[in-house]
């Protein structure tokens, strides 16, 4: 029950330790602390390392008995803002709460890190402190997408770690995305699709055709089913579990989907507010509408996971409130407990070996 | 009132003549003819050239008194299917209803063409028969997107004519998209945004930075306001009227948006069917729900417009029903009547001259 840094909560209490960046989100540290409180209530086996300005955090934390004994504050005097450039933060980020949050994963104090801060900076700091997994060229950010699948979600990656991806990177995204779906969505043999446009003839985009061939060859060794090219309309479908694309396209698709869902729900709200009968109807259907809201609530699936690093980092939405932060923490805890990072490393290593074997065989045939 | 081909209905009746491909849609010619009937009822000044198998079309058309005197059938024995490759159709497409539909615009018999057929093939046939406007390198497909704008729609292009676009092409899309918004949405000085991801530093994608500079320089001559980079979430927003992107990204965004809107409305339907109170609530709110459905109904905005050719072609959804076909025809008629193609050609020509002037000035300063 100590919050003294000299004893590691992980060893004393066998709790899952989450390293949390209290600063850098749009709603400030109060929203993050409120998210911790929600998480602590829901899950007795969580403990937190909370990074940020101690003079701000101490009073916030002390208001909540639920986390008083399970939350150790790590003072970090500086904050990465949404305007800071990743390259700057990479060079001069020591002393920020973000840097400190990642370092707790690097030195083994915490199993996983969560931050609401600047995505580009978080990826830059994660890369430089945690380093890439052996064999990974480009790390990726994977997100969950509400879908018609029985589990309710699909995985898409990359949604913004890097704006480019070669065929080799896309193959690695497939391997890593399938590992994530296995651990995060409990799918034994995920279906993987490669995002493309529907035209028969795609002049250019040679990397997609090449990636198509590589994924077809790799699917058995990597234990996924490759369903081939999928289109934007398939992202929320039950045709596929993991959608692979480059970070430029993935980011545009993610934000377009979020924007469209928001538009639909705003229009719906306006429709129900448009007259007495509609209001009465909405009142009667309140239970159903609340379930609907929950089903398409982006806060429920809050958390982009950085894949391909020596450590797990969950990026929460910058605008996350307590519900959003707590969803990101739940996801982080789940990945920590499933031993995800070790499994992922093993997958990437074995895919690398399979790739080499295939290259050797291919070379022999030529 | 003659349907005899020797007299041109346009000259006799001063009607707007639409050339319509009756074949190649997923629902067959009956859906297309039903769409003509809806359009003819709503608009007394329309007449049609209908292309396809006469033995199939004649009985369909003769069932409807509304179009009997306003619809001339042009027999075309062959059909372009969804599986046909654009390059094949380009070489061997003569005799298909699609080819014949475009030719009626080429030879001046009709003001505009509408087809539900294979998009790639339709673009290929349109390119080879109508030819590109002088100064246009890559034609584009523009679509309307339900939005928070006062008019209810934004324009996005390219949504799939070509998977690549250089800075010069993107600038041309801005000019053409703005012209379309001026004629199609009645906006005097449309706001144009360039689709990008939100990160501060975009390694690579040099064409976007270059296009950003070119659009900033061109906005006054081309009479649009350039709002800079926009993100996926801005597509349905009131920040922008015209969203410019390459055809790969635009196609993914379009289909992702459609897929997400469909998912939201399916989830909503399930929610209202989930219990007695919900059903009763839905019944009371029926009027509001119907207006909502109409507001987000993709059939209402059915019609991708091909920009950059010597003639206007409207591509209707392959799966369009009578309502969808009639929406595409309404859009086609509006563009024909506004003299859109002449205005567009003038814009492209003047933008080309402005670009040359700028290049000369720029060259002088260097």
Question: What would you say about this model in short?
Answer:
2 copies of one chain form a homodimer. Chain A is 49% helix and 15% strand.
Protein described:
2 copies of one chain form a homodimer. With about 375 residues, chain A is α/β, with parallel strands linked by helices. Chain A has 2 domains: about 1-135 and about 310-365, Rossmann fold; about 140-300, Isopropylmalate Dehydrogenase, CATH 3.40.718. Chain A contains 14 helices and 11 strands. An 11-stranded mixed β-sheet of chain A has the order 3-2-1-4-11-10-5-6-9-7-8, sandwiched between helices. Residues about 1-15 and about 360-365 of chain A have low confidence and may be disordered. Chains A and B meet through helix 10, helix 11 and helix 12 of A and helix 10, helix 11 and helix 12 of B.
Write the layout of secondary structure elements.
The structure is a homodimer of 366-residue chains.
Chain A: H1 9-13, E1 16-21, H2 28-42, E2 46-52, H3 54-62, H4 65-68, E3 71-75, H5 86-92, H6 97-106, E4 112-115, H7 119-130, E5 140-146, E6 153-157, H8 167-184, E7 191-195, H9 206-218, E8 225-230, E9 242-244, H10 247-272, H11 276-284, H12 286-295, E10 304-307, E11 312-315, H13 322-337, H14 340-365
Parallel strand pairs in A: 1-2, 1-4, 2-3, 4-11, 6-9, 7-8, 7-9
Antiparallel strand pairs in A: 5-6, 5-10, 10-11
Helix pairs in contact in A: 2-13, 5-7, 6-7, 8-9, 8-14
């Amino acid at each position: 029950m100590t919050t003294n840094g000299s004893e590691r909560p992980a060893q004393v209490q066998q709790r899952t330790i989450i390293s949390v960046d209290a600063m850098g989100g749009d709603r400030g540290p109060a929203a993050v602390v409120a998210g911790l409180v929600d998480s602590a209530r829901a899950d007795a086996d969580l403990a937190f390392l909370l990074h940020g300005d101690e003079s701000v955090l101490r009073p916030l934390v002390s208001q909540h008995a639920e986390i008083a004994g399970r939350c150790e504050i790590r003072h970090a005097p500086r904050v990465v803002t949404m305007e800071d450039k990743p390259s700057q933060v990479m060079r001069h980020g020591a002393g920020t709460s973000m840097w400190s949050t990642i370092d707790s994963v690097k030195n083994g104090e915490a199993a996983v890190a969560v931050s609401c801060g600047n995505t580009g900076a978080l990826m830059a700091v994660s890369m430089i402190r945690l380093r890439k997994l052996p064999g990974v060229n480009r790390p990726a950010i994977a997100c969950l997408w509400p879908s018609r699948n029985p589990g309710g979600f699909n995985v898409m990656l990359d949604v913004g770690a890097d704006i480019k991806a070669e065929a080799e990177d896309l193959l690695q995204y497939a391997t890593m995305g399938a590992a994530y779906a296995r651990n995060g969505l409990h799918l034994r043999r995920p279906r993987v699709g490669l995002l493309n446009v529907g035209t028969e003839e795609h002049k250019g985009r040679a990397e997609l055709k090449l990636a198509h061939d590589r994924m077809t060859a790799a699917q058995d060794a990597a234990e996924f089913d490759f369903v081939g090219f999928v289109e934007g309309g398939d992202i929320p479908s039950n045709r596929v579990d993991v959608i692979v694309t480059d970070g430029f396209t993935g980011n545009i698709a993610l934000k377009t989907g979020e924007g469209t869902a928001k538009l639909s729900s705003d229009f719906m709200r306006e429709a129900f507010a448009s007259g007495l009968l509609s209001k009465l109807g909405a009142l009667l259907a309140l239970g159903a509408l609340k379930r609907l809201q929950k089903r398409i609530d982006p806060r429920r699936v809050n958390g982009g996971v950085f894949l391909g690093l020596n450590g797990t980092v969950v990026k929460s939405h910058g605008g996350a409130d307590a519900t959003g932060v707590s969803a990101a923490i739940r996801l982080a805890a789940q990945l920590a407990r499933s031993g995800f990072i070790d499994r992922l490393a093993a997958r990437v290593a074995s895919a690398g070996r399979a790739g080499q074997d295939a290259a050797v065989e291919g070379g022999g045939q030529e």
